[in-house]
Design brief:
By secondary structure, the chain is mainly alpha-helical. The longest helix has 19 residues.
């Protein structure tokens, strides 16, 4: 997260940044009743990080979003 903050602070002009999200931002699999098929995950799902890696990805996404709204 600190690296992303430094990157954003060092930008001289508006820039296009592509940041890949991660499945770990949306949590681990949930048990499905009666052997139902697992559903696909979407970035529209509410985030629920499964671990520290997911937490850091979610924090970096928030930094990017805030930076985009500030410019």
């Amino acid at each position: 997260v600190e690296g992303m903050a430094r990157l954003l602070a060092g930008l001289q002009a508006p820039a296009r940044i592509v940041f890949a999200s991660s499945r770990s931002v949306y949590g681990g699999p949930t048990a499905l009743p009666n052997g139902a098929e697992p559903r696909t995950w979407s970035e529209a799902d509410a985030p629920h990080p499964a671990n520290g890696y997911g937490d850091s990805k979610l924090s970096a996404e928030a930094l990017l979003r805030d930076s985009a709204h500030a410019s």
